[in-house]
Please model this.
Amino acid sequence: MKRTVPLMIVLVGGLLMMIQYFIPHQYSQAVFNSYTEWAPIVGAFALILGVGSLTRVHSHKIRRKVKNWQFSWAVLIPLFAMPFLGIIWPQSLWGGMDEPSIFHFLFMHIQVPIQSTMFSLLAFYIASAAFRAFRAKSALATVLLLAAVIVMLGQVPIGEMFGRWLPETGLWILRYPNLAAKRAIMLGVGFGILATNLKIIFGVERNWLGGAGK
Amino acid sequence: MNIWEKMLNVDRRWIFLAIGVVSIIPFLIGVGMPITTTAEVESIFNFVNELDKNDAMFISFDYAPGTQAENTPMGVAVMRHAFHNNVPVFITSYFPLGHGMAIGALAYVTNPSIPGFYQHVSFEEWEVFRSAGITDKDELVAAWENDGNVLPEGARGWVFEGRDFAMLGYAPLFHLVILGMTASIEAQYPQDVNGNLLNEMPMLLEHKSLREISLALTTAGSSACRAWIVYGREKVGVPIAFGVTAVMATDYFPYIQSGQIIGQMGGLRGAAEYEVLLAQNEITETTDKAFTGMDVQSAAHILIILLIIMGNIAFFAGGFHKKTAVKGRG
Amino acid sequence: MYETIGIWVGAFFTLAIYSFLYKENPVYRLAEHLVVGISLGYTMAITWHVTLMPRLIEPLASGNHWILLVPALLGLLYITRFIPGIAWLSRYPIAFLMGTAMGVGFPLTMKTDVLRQLEAAMIPFYQSGMPWQVVFGNIVLIFGTLAALIYFFFSKPHKGLFFGTGSKIGIWVIMLGFGATFGFTVMGRISLLIGRIQYLLGDWLHIIE
Model:
């Protein structure tokens, strides 16, 4: 029941879905259509795992008063305030009919700026890394460096001031040698995904079972 | 410590400051250097340009706010193009946070304070016309304006919810939702995000599944965009276009060459190219944020190339290539 | 008013995150924690509105779709993950989604990333009227793909004409590809910064349009 049944579900589910692809009979299509309607419902409940884990970790920090425990409130309060404001009490800031809700406000004016700015920090770090780590130490490293510089200049308007050859060369690198390298990687990854799919379906790969009881 | 060592050990905050300054000044000067368009973006533009009110397309906001600076201008530009050509647009999202991005993009295109906006008409507002069987876009606009509605100043046209767009939003396990939509869009999205029933929407009644969709554009900040090829194109052959962040753009050139996607907007540059094409073809009056940002992009790239050159000069002139390690922070 | 307050709040948090560039500080840490809570809270609300209500609760309430109790009960088994003793029950919904996803994905991934790629690599070098750079590019494309594949093939030692030379050419092609990726990565990172500068100088301070 604990391990065999889940492994059987994976095997039967995997084979059934593969078969429906190769035999698109009306019965297999009916099963497939029901599946695509059911799966997002089951998937929606997976949120329980995220919410449960986050709550457990941060309530533990607060209870034990570990270092910086106060910040855990900044996770837990919005975690439960957002669904409250979005589902139960979708009010606007001053109750105006045309104003978006507080829920919308928190997303657009706190979540979006913070997340966007966090990602933009990488611009500073990549500049620092370019200065400190990007070295033409060998012939191969020099090729990498030259390709990067040509593509970087070719992609911006100022690159055209050096002549059309620069953006054209940048595009040539992208369309031919870059494509060749990426296709080789894509084929490798593709075979890797296929092998993993089969290993999971046939129960060779079982790490996903986790440690929730033997 | 010699000069080269000092140079290599410079406090990284000076580099941060330099990037910050270089990213601000071009905005204040406003150069507006021209951009040449590439085949990868032109092919998307030409494809959308051939579509009309009898077609329908998807624009999927498959990214989180972190990459909105690159992805949102792409979605906005193509949405404006579709609205201009009266192509109905289904708007979806792979991620929950992308749901908010999709709503934000539609709000931007229909914002009356932004010139060249499209006047939004909610599903409820034109119910009388729908009940009377007026669902063709041209007939609907004529009837709507005959009823006393006047297009606001600065607007480029009307967009009717359910006729010109349907905000479907996010759904969990979106790759399976794409797969499900190959059979029925309504089965996957019984309602839009505003609670309107899809089976009452003219655009859904005319385009019931992905098989009847002319194009799906995915604007993505992760490999989520691949789902549209794997589960959409390879299942029912729906044409796909990519609008992806620059970090990922180089990975997807094989899909362009193989014909699995019709084209790709790569990063802010790709979005800027689309904006240029819209302006050149008088679909918009001017370019927008992506094009404006390209001057900064030029300046910052020059700075980073200078940093690479300076770093290498200091490294080799200081003889560090003969030593095993150089002290440095970050 | 709503927009103005929103933009000021957004600008505050933007600067709070940038303060990290100087030094780690409590305001940055507050913003960092807020973003985790809000994003998951937002996801919960959106999932309720766009999935659970229209796909599950309303059809169940209408009384005609009792079959939907099956995926609902299967989904609810996720809760058991937090109940010692029956935590193993949470494997059932995972098994259902994982097995079916693997089965659905297998033939389609095979087509997307293997068969179509192999097909697209079989192209003629030269056709009448092709410019020289395209012909040269096609040669690089075909032999470059093969060489890069040889480089990634570790089951044979990289020696001799085929494996030795092939893998050497392969690494050069890969380096050109990685160089292009680095160039684009720089572009992408700067673009994200541009977005924030446009927000601060435009939406907040109104210095630029």
